[in-house]
Amino acid sequence: MTRTVSRASHVLQTIRRILLTLIGVQLATAIGLTLVDSYRRRGKKPGPFPRSAPASVEIGDTAVTTYTFGQDLYDDMLAAIEGAQHQILFETYIWKGDETGQRFKSALIDAARRGVDVYVIYDTFANLVVAPAFKHFPPELRVLRYPVWSAGLRFWDLGRYGRDHRKILVVDEAVGFVGGYNIGTPYATEWRDTHVRIVGPDVWDLKRAFADFWNLHRRRRFGSSGQPLLLEAASQWDPRVRVHRNVPRLWMFPIRAMYLEAINRATRNVWLTQAYFLPDQDFVDALKEAARRGVDVRLLIPLKSNHIVADWISRGYFTQLLDAGVRILRFKDAMVHAKTATIDGSWSTVGTANVDRLSLQGNYEINVEIIDPAMARVMEEIFAVDESHCLELTTAEWEARDLHRKFTETFLQPLRPLL
Question: Which CATH class is domain 55-239?
């Protein structure tokens, strides 16, 4: 009996070692791919890509302007900051300490010194490589640095591990901006992303999103002296423009459900643009089922993103999607970082959430859902411009890929839950 137990224990230890070794090799492979890709990219500039001019639509008392070129967006964001009279709420994931980053920092400081209440939130982990001097702010600014480690001693609480991946600017409750653009010079001209400006009563929901995050985390940053950010206006419900927020601390993840509901209702077209496409199987199945019932399903992704491991893992879904009739369009020459979709000429979303586990079930994210034909037309026109700069992946090309690519895709597949 003792010998049997010993053998079973030895077998379990052997299995454990094999699994740990396999995981270690997978992680080492992912790190190696990342390092090699970073080396290859050194000194290389993205190529030019077509872009759409800012386009505005009226939705009730609200005006929504869509941006697809960073410089256009930054000019209008800075103009809003420079014209602020009462309050600025600024939140970002990445804030580079370069020329563009300094312009935003200087504009915020200038606003605070002329009497505007300026609140700033940024994610510390995303800005570890930014020079410490840039992250020093004068006392006139109220700055909440979302910590690298937010769980404290509650390491078992998974709701405290999410990063703050949101990008929000609200000025004087009159104008708000939200979307995929981080702050930095490369994003101004070299990346293809999407952001929206909202002018009108629907700005209030962006302010509420910022205030709720600030109030949820302020005590950790400021202690008992941290004052809550009070809301001074009543929310106006507009069924055509809705803001959805993922809040991991409260286990709220509505953005995934928003996407699935819209895809499941689609009858004509589902056009998605995603920087990193790493969905769960239920999301993949929703796209496949839509395509099989005759819906025109198109997925626009980077030909090569800035995260090569995400690219390899994403490809593991391609066989299923192509077999179901989903068209896969790969944006060339530059990084497409947008997180958008438009469906059936009436439904659209623009936001910060990627279709991956980290965004849909982990990070703080925010997306605007807009149900309006004019907005959908704008999004369809933008998609058509982007599609003109894409290489479509055909079934024949995909099946003809070489053996080492197939092996790498399969080998890295277990890392999907980490991304």
Answer: alpha beta
